[in-house]
Amino acid sequence: MLRAGRRGAAVALIGALLFAAPAARADDVRGGQKAVIRTLALPEAWRTSTGAGVTVAVLDSGVDPRHRDLAGSVREGRDFTAGANPPGTPPSRLHGTYMASLIAGHGHGPGRKRGIIGVAPGADVLSVRVILEDEEPGFRAFNSAERFENVVARGIRYAVDEGADVINMSISKELATREERAAIRYAISKGVVLVAAAGNDGDRRIDGEFAPYSYPAAFPGVVSVGATDRRLRRASFSNWNSSVLVAAPGVDIMGAGPGDEYWVGRGTSQATALVSGVAALIKSKYPDMSPPLVARALAAGATDRPPGGYDTATGFGVVNAARALTEASRLAGHTETATGAQAQDPARPVAAGRAGPVKVVQRDERRVTVYAAIAGGAAAGSLLALTVIFVLVRRVRRAHISQQA
User: Fold this and answer.
1) Which pLDDT tens digit goes with each residue over 48-88?
2) Residue range 348-363, pLDDT digits in tens
3) Are 59 and 152 in contact (CB under 8 A)?
4) First to last CA, the chain
5) Which SS3 state, helix, strand or coil, does residue 121 take?
6) pTM of the model
7) Which of 302, 309, 305 is nearest to 324 (CA)?
8) Annotated active-site positions, please?
9) I want to staple 245 with a disulfide (CB 3.0 to 4.6 A). Which of 106, 145, 167, 386 is the partner?
10) Distance of alpha carbon 69 from alpha carbon 377, whole angstroms
């Protein structure tokens, strides 16, 4: 998860803790995805939809369009961080590439059976750069300059205007801004599904009752995603609060990195990307389905439901792509919308519960293993209260940075 923090606060992008790994064979990569493919019931879902015709905007650190598992599917959009790095500095694009591959990776080689296969391999990706990774030289400038304060809000509006059907936000911050709230209202009014990470502060408690809320995941109308472990229980780092709508696997998730590398990591970031892929499958089959009904299909089709049907740990359960598509088919005849556009112009800022200048700056990361380049190949009361966060791996570079789970 890339995290944003208040201007003037001690915030930083926590980089990846990398471990050298032996070169992996191409079939090792796809083999490493088997558990996720099985959990999400993707083979069954792909009989109905592969995400063709859908554009998923990835608001992140940038996507490598030349990775063999994404080539031909990525359109590089605007860079809202421009000017933060010194001239000529190439973007790292690690986190963004990783997320994009989980959403729309199409593999490579004979029959595309090698490399990463995303949840919606037929979808296209619009890369919108709204964050810097902590190793980039402009990191400090990005987090201190006033002109970068509302990059997320601007990125959302840009993605909507560029034709995005789904927006993935594996990013988080502690405070919301009016501009972000207005941008989210604008996106929903245009029928765009927003998916965000619930956060990786699961070991922190507010009044001993729940983990902190994170934005943009905690905004009404955003699908907030938590992460599960290998047993499909809440991962220890995953935030638990009433914003969580659904959950998805978030531990030991295989993905792609820049330069034809492959990674294994954990976090709500990965879980969020997987859910965005399922949303893309739904929008491909039912392009006119409103965001609230897509959220309903995701929740109603979930498996591993908690006792009573809902809890703050995994929401309504673990997303299942095949079942979500079945639920979507039942909802497809409905015309209800819930955009709020009738009440107020979505372009006009609205009062936020907690407003303040916020900056996207932190990639929440746990363990991440880099694989060498392979040359051979809310929820509790309303489905509109959705939230999500993204997590990769954490490298604590400074002792004064608060722990992110």
Assistant:
1) 999 999 999 999 999 999 999 999 999 999 999 999 999 99
2) 332 222 223 333 333 4
3) yes
4) 9
5) coil
6) 0.80
7) 302
8) 60, 95, 269
9) 386
10) 10
